[in-house]
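Need residues for this backbone.
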């Protein structure tokens, strides 16, 4: 069953009198439980597409449906509420708050919910357990390695049990060993926890971890291929 449906999606930005096309009539269907990698050179529209899926941006034309919600029709307020419930976002540079511990960083999305303090603690410790960092709960980002920081960021992304995980170059700032560990974790979230993941990457080794790869070239899909899951 398709979780994500993009139909004829284009995105154009206006700079003064000039229109700059970033995506051109992109149509994609992503099944529930799929791990999709989006590849392409810088400027190909990968991150724009991810932002559209997250409801951070809206298409100039076309429709985007995730589950039974056509998010391309939601208001800004409606998008914010929908995003808080359904999207977990993993960034290249972690985006952790330096003055908060790992526990507090992971807890942040839960502060917008009606959960009790004990329920929030249970959720946070479960998420930190999944990424293997229970014993680092009281550590600050500066006390963690880059790979550990990214795992805290992944815990923060999954703590609300989102419908969809979006990862923008999640290994782009990591060494090979830490990057491989993060990719193995994403594969586990996909395989064991059935999370639907869309990952933007320029790294063919990262893309190999996905079950399918789509290539963007100048805002259009150029080819797609299945990848053996390793």
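Answer:
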């Amino acid at each position: 069953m398709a979780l994500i449906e993009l139909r004829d999606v284009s995105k154009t930005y206006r700079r003064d009198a000039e229109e700059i096309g970033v995506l051109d009539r992109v149509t994609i269907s992503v099944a529930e439980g799929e791990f999709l990698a989006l590849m392409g050179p810088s400027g190909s529209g990968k991150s724009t597409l991810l932002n559209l899926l997250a409801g951070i941006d809206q298409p100039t034309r076309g429709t985007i449906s995730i589950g039974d919600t056509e998010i391309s029709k939601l208001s800004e307020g409606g998008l914010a509420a929908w995003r808080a419930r359904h999207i977990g976002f993993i960034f290249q540079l972690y985006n952790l708050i330096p003055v908060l511990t790992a526990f507090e960083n992971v807890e942040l999305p839960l502060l917008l919910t009606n959960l009790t303090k004990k329920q929030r603690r249970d959720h946070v410790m479960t998420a930190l357990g999944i990424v293997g960092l229970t014993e680092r709960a009281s550590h600050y980002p500066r006390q963690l390695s880059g790979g550990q920081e990214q795992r805290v960021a992944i815990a923060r992304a999954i703590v609300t049990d989102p419908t969809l995980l979006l990862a923008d170059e999640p290994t782009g700032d990591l060494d090979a060993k830490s990057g491989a560990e993060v990719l193995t974790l994403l594969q586990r979230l996909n395989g064991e926890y059935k999370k639907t993941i869309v990952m933007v990457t320029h790294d063919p080794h990262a893309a190999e971890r996905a079950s399918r790869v789509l290539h963007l070239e100048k805002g259009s899909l150029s080819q797609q291929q299945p990848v053996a899951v390793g």
